[in-house]
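G., the chain you wanted modeled:
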Amino acid sequence: MEIVNVIREIHQGGFGVIHEVELKDGSRVARKTFNPIMKEKMNIKTLSEFKRRFSREVKIQEKLPSDFFIEILYSSLDSEDPWFLMPIAEKVFTEEISQSKLKRRYPEGLADILNCLEHLHDRGYIHRDLKPGNILLHDGKWKLADLGLITSDAEMTSSFATAEGFHAGSLLYMAPEQHTHFNGVTHHADIYSFGAILHDIFNGTRRVPYKKLSANGSIGVIIEKCTEEDIHRRFNDVSTLRNVLLSYLSKTEITNKDITEEISKWIDDLKVVETWDSNKLDSFVIYLDHIEGSKEIIFYEISSYIIELLFKIDFYLWKRFVLMYLEWIYSSRFNFDYCDVLIGHVSKIFVLTDDLEIKSNAALTAAELGRSHNRWYVMNFVLKMCSSISDNLADRIAIEIHVGGDSVKNNFIACAERINTNIDKYHKKIYEVLN
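Predicted structure as C-alpha cells:
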C-alpha cells in the first residue's frame, strides 16, 4: 500500500508516533510507526524485544473485531521500523468528556467502552492502558486502540513505565497493582482505569495516582467501587459494572414528581427481595396489574439478580411478572446505553425457563429492542436466541413472527443485516418465515 504524502503528526505515544498520511488513491488514514520514547537509551536486545512485542500486539489487534477495536487496514511488520495503517478517528474520548461538560449532559459511549472491555476480558486479555486518549470514535462507535500493553512483560514494562511521557499519559489511570506488580495484574486493573475515567467525567478534580476515587452523589459510590485499592472489593466483572452504572444513569431521567408513596415503598421492598415469599410476589404482581403509567419507575429498578430471585419463589407468578416486563420493554423507548442493560435482563429471562411463551416473547422483545434502537450489541443477542434452539421453540417464534406481520418480520431481518449476518443464520424454521 503506497503512501504518497505525510500530512501531519497526530500523536506521539509510548510505543510509536502516529501521522496522518495520504495514500495513492487519495484517501487519508493514520499510520503508527514503531518509535518507543526511550529508543535512544535502549540496548539492541531491549529494542529488539520491544519491536517483537509491538508486532505481536498488531497481530492481535488484526484479529479483534472492528466493532470493538480500531481496525488494522495494513501492516508492514518486517520493516526496520514496523508500522501499520488504521482509520482516522472522528473523535477522541477526551473531547467527548469536555463537550459533555460544556453541554451539561452525560458523555456518549460509556456502554461501548464497557462492551469493548468485556470482549477483551472474555478472551483472557487485559488492556492495561485504558484512558480517554486510547478510546476513539469510528463509524459511529467508540472503540479501543493502542493495545501496546495488552500482554505483560516485566522487564520491558519496567523500562517503559519509567519513561517521561508514559506517566503523563497513563499514570493517573493505572491501578495500584500495576505500579507494584504489572505483569501479575488481572482484569480488575481495567475496571480501576474505567473508574478513573468516570472520575474525569463526574468529578474532574486533580487526583493522586493509585488511590481510591470518588465524586458527589450516588455516582461516587460506583466510582469508589471501581477504584478500591483491594481488587477483591472492586466490581468483579464488566457485566456487573455495566448493569449498575447504566441503570443509574438511565434512572436519573425519571422525575421524582411521579414517585408516589406506594411506588416508593415497592422500590424499597425490591432492595430486600431476598426476604420475599409467594404472598409478597403475588401482591407485587397484582399491584403491577393495576397501575398504568408509573410501571416504568418500578421496572427501572429491576435487575437480572431480582429476576432470578423471583423465578425461584413461584414460577407462575414470575411468568405473569416477566410477561408484563417484556411488554413494557417492547413498547417503550430507551437511551442506547440502557438497551445494553435491558438485553441482559431479557437474555436472563430467556435462559431461566423452558416455557415457550416466555422464550418466544423474549426473542420478539429482543428483536424489537435491537431494531428500534439500532443497537448492534442487542442484535447479537437476537441471533444467539434464535439459532441453536429446539425445533419446538423455533416453531413458536416463527408462528409469532407470522402473526406479528411485516413489522415483526422486519425486526428480525434488520437484526441480522445490520450486524452483517445473513438471515440463514437463524434456525431454519425462523429463516423460512423470514424468507
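The first strand starts at residue 3 and ends at 12.

Shout if anything looks off.
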